[in-house]
Amino acid sequence: MSKSERTRQFIIEKTAPIFNTKGYAGTSINDITEATKLTKGSVYGNFKNKDEVAVAAFQYNLSKVRKLIADEIAQKESYRDKLKCIPKLYLDFLTDKFPVGGCPIMNTATEADDTHPELRKHAKDAILAWNENLAALINKGKEAHEFKPETNAAEKALLIITLIEGTVMLVKLTGLTSYLKTSMNSIMELIDDL
């Protein structure tokens, strides 16, 4: 890595928790310079603007979640167990397993839906890719005769994501972590019924 690449990565890693916690609108250039101990000129010498930092921070947080899920899935043998590891992981979305601030998809989608088209597009792409990956897992499970042949993989994948992200939003909004167990258990039952 060149010095400028290391500096960019440093800025991303230091600001990712701030953007994931405070959001785009709530994160100021002062937050960025305070977290990195760099000058405004140094930050903008590596990024065109705050938007570019925010997108890079989102991608960084998203990559951490994707790696967490991929690592868990890789350890499972059956497709049912591969799917079940996802709601099990989301039971801990408020812990240090996840990026600071929780699920970056939900955080970014909630804030950027009407206010930041570029971040909205990245959150949308993340959801669509996740849905596609879950549907592929379900289809592989059907091919392996683990799931019923009539299972609509795309619909079930969408339902799993909707339950996860809706629960994340409710828990963050209300502070009632008991919703996590209830919803994740419902997802486990849904997976058992595939």
From TrEMBL:
InterPro entries reported for this sequence: Homeodomain-like_sf, HTH_TetR, Tet_transcr_reg_TetR-rel_C_sf, TetR_C
Manganese is among the record's keywords: no
Protein's UniProt name: TetR/AcrR family transcriptional regulator
Coiled coil: none
Gene3D superfamilies per the UniProt record, alphabetical: Tetracycline Repressor, domain 2 (1.10.357.10)
Signal peptide: none
Location of the DNA-binding region in this protein: 28-47
